[in-house]
Amino acid sequence: MNHDPRIQFAAERTLLAWLRTGLSLMAFGFLIERFGLLLEEFGQGTEGGRIFSFVVGLAFILAGSALSLAAAWSHRRVIEQLPEDQKLPGYHSRYGLFATIASGLLGVLLCAYLVLQL
Q1: What value does the mean pLDDT take over residues 32-49?
Q2: How many structural domains does the chain have?
Q3: Which domain, by its residues, includes 109?
Q4: Cα angle for residues 3, 15, 89 (degrees, 5° grid)
Q5: For residue 45, pLDDT beyond 70
Q6: Rounded to whole angstroms, how far apart are CA atoms 85 and 90?
Q7: Do residues 98 and 69 make contact, with C-beta atoms less than 8 angstroms apart?
Q8: What is the pTM of this model?
Q9: 66-70, long-range: CB < 8 A, 24+ apart
Q10: Could you tell me if residue 103 is inside a domain?
Q11: For the chain, what percent of residues have pLDDT higher than 70?
Q12: Is the pLDDT higher at 8 or at 2?
């Protein structure tokens, strides 16, 4: 049997690209959330601006988390649907899936932490 794992590797590269995108959204959201606090500390911001940056920052963090979790779910479905001759025997993308799920859950925990700190 001729094993051609290119599709499996392409699916894993796609998963990792979505992971990077989700992490970028979460980092950008955290930056936006903290920027309102920074402006308030320097006396440049208002309470309304602080709340706005808080809500927008949380939205970006949650979007990044949702994107990461959706990417993990989609990747798993793609891998399950691949024919056996398209998979490399003994190779699993568990680490990529674990990293993607962990980053999504950590983003949710970050949102919970930020809400509790408000």
Answers
A1: 77
A2: 1
A3: 6-117
A4: 20
A5: no
A6: 12
A7: no
A8: 0.86
A9: 66/104, 67/18, 67/21, 67/22, 67/25, 67/104, 68/18, 68/19, 68/22, 68/23, 68/100, 68/101, 68/103, 68/104, 68/107, 69/100, 69/101, 69/104, 69/105, 70/18
A10: yes
A11: 96
A12: 8
Of 37, 39, 34, nearest in space to 60 by CA: 34
Q: Is the dihedral angle over the CA atoms 8, 9, 15, 17 positive or is it negative?
A: negative
Phi-psi region of 2 (alpha: psi -120 to 50; beta: other; left: phi over 0): beta
Judge whether 70 lies within some domain: yes
Letter for the amino acid at 112? A
Tokens read off for 26:
């979460």
Place of tokens 């402006």: 39
CB 29 within 8 A of CB 59: yes
Measured CA to CA, the distance from residue 5 to residue 99 in angstroms comes to 21
Number of helices (H) and strands (E) in the chain: give both, helices first.
3, 0
